[in-house]
Specification:
By secondary structure, the protein is an all-alpha fold. It is built from 11 helices and no strands.
């Protein structure tokens, strides 16, 4: 690989104008198309829309990313970050415009995203009521005398549970 080809893989942006000047016309065109793609991607976060806007195919964009031509992978990541930052700014502006009667879902979502340690609880409260009811039912079943088989078959499961609960003197 020659030194010129190594420079092609280097990142090229406004801070490396000398490197850009060293590119041949085809490479310069490719860099400009990438820049146009990234500008659109920053606004839409859609690779297919941005590719269409830039006059290239989605497959070309994938190749740029895979080959990291002109540092494209890092530039794409930065464009993605810019999109997210813009989206967050828009959400913050809307939250600030809300009045007391507004739906707080957006605010809660932003708090969850930005302060997860404080506003996104990870503790799940376990409700042991069902377990305790089942435990009581098992205990009652063990203590109650065995009923006649004919009587049990005539009752539905719901009736049997209702009967057990009535015998216990709790919920009915």
């Amino acid at each position: 690989m020659s030194n010129t080809n190594t420079n092609i893989q280097d990142r090229i942006d406004s801070t490396t104008e000398d490197t850009y000047k060293a590119l041949n016309p085809t490479q310069k065109k490719s860099w400009r198309v990438q820049s146009r793609f990234l500008k659109c991607y920053t606004e839409t976060r859609s690779k297919s829309v941005s590719a269409s806007y830039s006059g290239v195919t989605y497959r070309t964009v994938s190749k740029w990313e895979k080959d990291n031509k002109f540092g494209f992978a890092e530039r794409l990541e930065e464009a993605d970050f810019e999109f997210c930052e813009g989206l967050e700014q828009l959400a913050l502006e809307r939250v600030k415009m809300q009045d007391a009667k507004s739906n707080p879902v957006l605010l809660i979502t932003l708090l969850n995203a930005n302060l997860p340690m404080k506003y996104r609880p990870t503790v799940v409260m376990a409700d042991d009521t069902a377990k305790s009811v089942l435990s009581e039912l098992r205990q009652i079943a063990k203590e109650s005398p065995v009923q006649n088989q004919e009587q049990v078959e005539e009752q539905t499961a719901l009736e049997q549970v209702q009967g057990i609960l009535n015998d216990k003197g709790s919920m009915s």
